[in-house]
Amino acid sequence: MARTRVFISHAVKDKALVDAFFDLLQTGAGLTPNETFCSSLEGMGIPAGKNFVDYIKEKVQHPDLVLLILSPNYLESLFCQCELGAGWALSHDMIPIVVPPTKFSDLKAVLTGTHGYRIDSDTDLSELRDQIVSLLKLSAPKTARWDAKKKQFLEAVPGILSKIEPPQRIALKDHQELQGRYDEAVAEMKTCLDEIDSLKTQIERLKECKDRDEVSEVERDFSDEWEQFETLCENASKLGQPLPAMVIEAIYHELSGKAGVPYGQQTWDEIRAASQEDYLHVSGDNAVSVNTEDPKISRYMDALNDVQRFLNGLDEDASFNEKYKEEYDHRPVFTSRKLWEEHLGLLSHTKW
């Protein structure tokens, strides 16, 4: 399939006008349907089975040129305004084409300073054709053919416009609601574009990474504190899953510096079982220590140390601390048993 070079942004109610306008450009400027997206025209719109909104969002991403058919129906359409906003946010080449009774003074702020053309002007149409041919490097048909087609189009425009249904005015309350939804859509689109830019930068930095530590540094730079914490805890908890619960209990005591002596027959049975699997060491005076040379334990403790470094690196007045306390009703302190039970795989029933 040919790449979309031209995106024609228009109101659905203006289909007849847009159809005649594209026919003029095809005959007089050499523009082809295969390289043009126009949602209302057969063969240039949305394929069967495709989601309407998603497909238009895809097509508006990378055209060489966006033609804006600015009619009264266009200016009243929330969806058209989103297309206009997307073209502006993505810094595409855009050419406004004004349809009467719309005037240049009616154009929105994002088009201020953008040179436009009147669709019912002989001179404007010729200048528009020259600009399109130049921008897209098209092989335009001979001028005589263009002049004949242009004259035919201009004669047909009044009749076409007289048959187009004008926009329906809506109540102020409804307008304000739609304006709010539009503003939200524009804000959401800006957020998405910012995220795309951030991801592109992150990808470029990841390409330059030489080891795991450098990758982790990039990930920290592009994540907020809450995301970093959740990711670190999920990784640690996952690495701790293959270990017996009593081993995690012993690791907690070792890393947190909490005093405690194992008691109870069941506890010691589990400790001895873990010792037989070479996870724990038990000395002659029943002191329990962790075998940090075991690969599973080593990986788990490395992940726990990442969590500890993250928590120790937070400022006391960091917003993360308040959010955490509100969410879990205890402080985000690495030595806290509550934190280990909530996030790091420690079980309450194994407590010494």
Topology:
Blueprint: E1 6-9, H1 15-29, E2 36-37, H2 52-59, E3 65-70, H3 72-76, H4 78-89, E4 94-98, E5 117-118, H5 122-136, H6 143-163, H7 172-207, H8 212-221, H9 225-240, H10 245-256, H11 265-276, E6 280-282, E7 288-290, H12 295-312, H13 319-328, H14 337-343
Parallel strand pairs: 1-2, 1-3, 3-4, 4-5
Antiparallel strand pairs: 6-7
Per CATH, the superfamily of the largest domain is Toll/interleukin-1 receptor homology (TIR) domain
Unreliable stretches (pLDDT < 50, length at least 5) are none
Number of strands: 7
Order of helices and strands: EHEHEHHEEHHHHHHHEEHHH
Biggest sheet strand order reads: 2-1-3-4-5
What is the second-level CATH architecture of the largest domain? 3-Layer(aba) Sandwich
Query: Helix content range of the residues, please?
Result: 55-70%
The main sheet comes to:
5 strands, parallel
Number of helices: 14
Radius of gyration: 33 Å
Structural domain count: 3
Give the CATH level 1 class of the largest domain. Alpha Beta
Basic shape: elongated
Q: What is the terminal-to-terminal distance?
A: 68 Å
Strand-pairing-aware structural class: alpha/beta
Strand content: 5-15%
Output the CATH topology of the largest domain. Rossmann fold
Task: Give a quick rundown of the structure.
The chain has 352 residues and is α/β, with parallel strands linked by helices. The protein is 56% helix and 7% strand. It is built from 14 helices and seven strands.
